[in-house]
Design a protein that fits this description.
alpha/beta; 10-stranded mixed β-sheet; 13 helices
């Protein structure tokens, strides 16, 4: 019996050793010098049912010497980008295969951080183009997705970042800045887009990116800003110099099709209604001197609370509590006085109520799109998930009655309490 146990033990050891020899190894390994890392991808509609895939490939840069292909030093290796390449194909995966007909390294998507869809393709529908993005393992669902005004290829061709030298960090840098500015949706990952497309009664919003034609024609900004109107929509911002490409606002989708746009100011209110905006700076009219402006640092005090009553019409009431700091008062009015502070709070509340209600009516009545989405707050009103799915939510939104109340609390007045007065 002991001999049999020893035989079994040695047999097990031999079998384990044999399996380790035959089942491990690096037969499919690829060295860094054999790979072409795609950091940005733009997809546009092409004739005859084809698509144009434009990609920018990274050039890893040594952090110590400033040249070469290797890493070196601590932290993440910065990557400059090549000039964009465009390949016409039936599908995205076929475009990558064709790319290796002229790019001498294997196309790799492990560093892809920016994905853009052109306007024409987005209006036609994105479902069949998203399919390989969620099935092919090299595509990460954390990729930032944007929709462009006009061809997405033009965005890659004209993009000239002001500060960020690394092409693979550009998406993270824009998203980080937008979390504070509120000008684009921060829920801009591929995973967010897919989830909102799959969930019933939800409409996705995707960050909007466009080329400013004025800046493109005068890249040095020698002529200065042109025009007297202020716009928060990408491609229309009044400015001079800098990157011709700008991001502000969002594309509104119904299902997988682009149906309209929101500007950056509307996106800020959308994020307040979603409860996804921690803090941002906003401008309002001065209640005592309407020609002047009041600057406020707006913070989310609590998540918005929705009151919904099903029926005909559908009734939706929203309470949005916000906490604000006074950071600018052009008029010089001393809003530290209790009676004046209450007037300012009431004026800001009326302005926010009006703008948020106008946004909700635009989404519900004009676009038939629940981008907030209010439907998530209405789920508890249904006994079963099937009843929720079968409810004609979008049809009810077309005639919905909406009421919004912003509960504004002015608590702080900056580092100087007394208004600035010039002595003459």
């Amino acid at each position: 019996m002991a001999r049999l146990d020893r035989f079994s033990r040695w047999t097990t050891v031999a079998l384990a050793f044999g399996l380790s020899v035959f089942t491990t190894g690096c037969y499919d390994r690829q060295e860094l010098e054999e790979q072409a890392f795609v950091t940005a991808l733009a997809i546009d509609k092409a004739p005859s049912g084809l698509i144009d895939c434009t990609m920018r490939i990274a050039l890893p840069k040594n952090q110590i010497t400033g040249s070469g292909q290797g890493g070196g030093g601590g932290g993440r290796t910065p990557m400059a980008g090549t000039a964009p390449f465009t390949f016409r194909a039936h599908t995205i995966t076929e475009a990558f295969r064709l790319a290796n007909s002229s790019i001498e390294r294997t196309i790799t998507l492990s560093h892809l951080s920016n994905l853009m869809f052109g306007e024409d393709l987005a209006r036609e529908g994105l479902a069949k183009h998203i399919e390989p993005l969620i099935r092919f393992r090299e595509f990460r669902r954390t990729v930032y997705v944007k929709v462009s005004r006009g061809p997405a290829r033009d965005i890659l061709m004209q993009d000239k970042p002001v500060l960020e030298p690394s092409t693979d960090r550009m998406g993270d840098a824009v998203a980080s800045a937008s979390r504070r500015s509120g000008l684009i949706p921060v829920e801009g990952h591929l995973h967010d887009l897919v989830t909102e497309m799959e969930n019933p009664h939800e409409a996705p919003v995707v960050p909007l990116i466009a080329i400013n034609q004025v800046v493109e024609k005068d890249p040095k900004g020698e002529a200065g800003p042109q025009g007297t109107t202020i716009s928060y929509e990408a491609g229309q911002v009044t400015r001079a110099g800098g990157n011709p490409v700008e991001w502000s606002g969002a594309g509104v989708f119904r299902g997988d099709r682009l149906i309209g746009y929101l500007d950056g100011d509307e996106v800020t209110y959308l994020r307040l209604l979603r409860g996804s905006l921690p803090a941002t700076k906003m401008e309002f009219h001065d209640p005592l001197r309407p020609g002047d402006r009041v600057g406020l640092w707006v913070r989310k005090e609590r998540s918005p609370h929705y009151h919904i009553r099903l029926g005909r019409p559908l009734l939706i009431s929203v309470d949005v509590p916000v906490d604000v700091d006074l950071i600018n008062a052009e008029s010089g009015v001393d809003y530290t006085k209790p009676e004046l502070r209450r007037k300012l709070e009431a004026s800001v509340e009326r302005e926010m109520d009006r703008d948020m209600q106008a946004l909700m009516l635009k989404l519900f009545h004009q676009y038939d799109a629940d981008c907030i989405p209010v439907s998530r707050h209405a789920r508890r009103l249904f006994a079963t998930y099937q009843a929720f799915v079968q409810y004609p939510w979008e049809q009810s939104l077309r005639t919905a009655q909406v009421a919004v109340h912003a509960d504004v609390h002015l608590r702080r007045f900056g580092v100087q309490m007394v208004p600035f007065n010039v002595t003459t």
